[in-house]
Amino acid sequence: MTEKLSTETRKTLLAPLTDNGWELVEGRDAIRKTFKFGDFADAFGWMTRVAFWAEKWNHHPEWDNIYNTVNVVLTTHDVDGLSTLDVKLARKLDSLAG
Amino acid sequence: MTEKLSTETRKTLLAPLTDNGWELVEGRDAIRKTFKFGDFADAFGWMTRVAFWAEKWNHHPEWDNIYNTVNVVLTTHDVDGLSTLDVKLARKLDSLAG
C-alpha cells in the first residue's frame, strides 16, 4: 500500500534528490526536474526507457517534451502527494539519464 | 524550403484538421489537439510511432503526456508559425491514432 511521505522520511529521501537537481513544485506536493539531451532522438530514447519502468511499477510521470528537453513532474495521485514511489522513479530517471 | 502558410493555403489546409479536432492556439501561430488512449502503454506506444515520423521528417511536436492523455502542439519554429510540415505531421498523428 502506497503511503504519503511522512515528515521525517520526506527529509531523508528528498535531500539526495534535491541535491541532484529535483525541486519541489509550488502549490503541489510534487517534485520536478528538467532533463536536457543532445537531440530529440536522445530525449525520446530516454523517455522510452523510462516508460517501461513506469509501466512496470504502474507509476507514471507527468512530462512534456520539446525537441531535446523533457520536463518531468512526479507525484502520486492515489495519495494526493509524494510517496516512496516518486522517490524510486526519480532515482531511476536520474540513473537512466546517466 | 519550409514556408509559413499563406492566407489562402491556410484555409484549405487547416479546415480538414479543425474538422478533425485540431484547434488554433491562442496567441501563437500553432495548432493543438488532445489525444486520449486506453491507458499509458497505448498512449506511449502511439507517441513512439509518432516519434519515428517526427525524426524522419525532422519536425517535432511539442507534447505532454499524463497517463493515457497526450496534448500536442504543432508549429514550425524556423518560420515562427504554421507551415505545411505541421499539416503533414497533424495528418500523420491522426492517422496513427486510427
Automatic annotation (TrEMBL), chains A, B:
Q: Report the SUPFAM superfamilies cross-referenced here.
A: PCD-like
Q: What's its EC? A: 4.2.1.96
Broadest EC class? lyase
Q: For this protein, what reaction is catalysed?
A: (4aS,6R)-4a-hydroxy-L-erythro-5,6,7,8-tetrahydrobiopterin = (6R)-L-erythro-6,7-dihydrobiopterin + H2O
GO MF terms on file?
4-alpha-hydroxytetrahydrobiopterin dehydratase activity
What InterPro entries does the annotation carry?
A: PCD_sf (IPR036428), Pterin_deHydtase (IPR001533)
**What Pfam families does the record point to?**
Pterin_4a (PF01329)
**Which keywords, in A-to-Z order, does the entry hold?**
Lyase
List, alphabetically, the PANTHER family matched.
PTERIN-4-ALPHA-CARBINOLAMINE DEHYDRATASE (PTHR12599)
HAMAP family assigned:
Pterin_4_alpha (MF_00434)
Family designation = Belongs to the pterin-4-alpha-carbinolamine dehydratase family.
> Would you tell me the protein name for this molecule?
Putative pterin-4-alpha-carbinolamine dehydratase
Ranked from the top, the taxonomy reads: Bacteria, Pseudomonadati, Pseudomonadota, Alphaproteobacteria, Rhodobacterales
